[in-house]
Amino acid sequence: MRVGLITLILLLTASPWLNATQLRGTGDLGVVVERADGSLQVIETTGNTILGRIEGLGDLSHASAVFSRDERFAYLFGRDGGLTKVDILRQTIVNRVVQSGNSIGGAISQDGRLVAVSNYEPGGVRIFDADSLELVADIPATYGDGKQSKVVGLVDAPGNQFIFSLWDAGEIWVVDMDEAAKPVVRKFKEIGLQPYDALITPDGRYYIAGLYGEDGLALLDLWNPQQGVRRILNDYGKGQQKLPVYKMPHLEGWALAGRHLFIPAVGQHQVLVVDTDSWREVGRLDVHGQPVFVMARPDGRQVWVNFAFPKNDTLQVIDTQSLKLVTTLHPGKGVLHMEFEPRGEEIWVSVRDIDRLQVYDTATFTRRAEWPVLKPSGIFLTSRAHQIGL
Amino acid sequence: MKRPVSIIASLLLLCQYASADGIPEPRRYELLNLLKHDCGSCHGLSLKGGLGPPLTPTQLQGKPLDFLTATILYGRTGTPMPPWRPFLSDAEAEWLAKRIKRGVQ
Which of A134, A159, A196, A280 ranks highest by number of CB atoms within 10 Å? Predict the structure, then answer.
């Protein structure tokens, strides 16, 4: 009896060891960037808990992540040009290369073998072997008389392609990596002034770059690239005074609900609704501030919006059927990022200034969990591994 | 006898609190947080540049303090730099400009 009790106690207290050796899937895992500390929190979304912390990833301001197709490894793209491969299960850094002076984002190829990083300095895209992180291709974003452009809006597309936009040059480039040793670059010029970010529709067909320097967006139909880049929503800001922009909006994390695409209006307190058949604006919604992320719940029924400074303490939810505001939440100052769980019943929210990570129920809008996390920014769940463009 | 001492002590405390710039310590903390995270969303968390140019002392060498203060307050037309005047006093903008010129961290 006594021996049994002691064994039980020993077993219970040894549970960390048990956890370490227990078999576990990764489908309900994710990482949260602690932007100021260069660390990651590993989260799990079944019990809404934090599993551990990984340190030593450099400058993670504006960092983002993509996942290996087995959902075990995350590739982190840091501001300092660092590309870090992380083992989520072991919570360790597997490999890390500093591949440029200043980078902004990345993507993983359709076949999972290549990881591409978009750089500000020197402007261009570098492509690495996903396994070894060895450089496979270097594509400087050279334009005009030899200048190099900052690169934004890098995504993967079917056919082992990478697509990105050139902020300074106003161009969209499509890189075909079918033969990794011989990348084929196709350039689309004069697409508009200062593309600031881009998205690819979840079917991988349309690449859409938002423009900062003028109204409108640049649309490339990847099923018919010979048609070239077409301008849509050319005059959405017409007759309106553009407000100063305190934070660039994001287009990553597409917001496609049915046939409607929801996108932030630059310099306006509005979300634009675009019909993806005609590519015309079919509505616009007045919101609390300048939208930063406009994200559709995976079922497309709701769109969640966060806002730029100084209105970044608020989240708004829009019903995509009635186009009406459903609710306004006040998670705290510095709502930086949101991530839906794969089937959309919960959403994770980073609240930077109060150092909190929160989980909300998307039906009742009640808070399900809250964790202290240092200056949280991007939240990335492993389910992204199987989504085109993410 | 005890009183003057405590008055002097609290005055000293107050001086430290308000500082020579007239910006109280908690506000300075807020301003540095703003610089790091909100200016940082374009200029980089460590101010080494992003979509916006780097704001390192080397980069800003030769740029007069007035010019930097005015850029913070009024923005730069023709660029994405917005005016921060709605959120900052003249003194606060100048304090930030000085801090940036000197180098943060």
Answer: A196
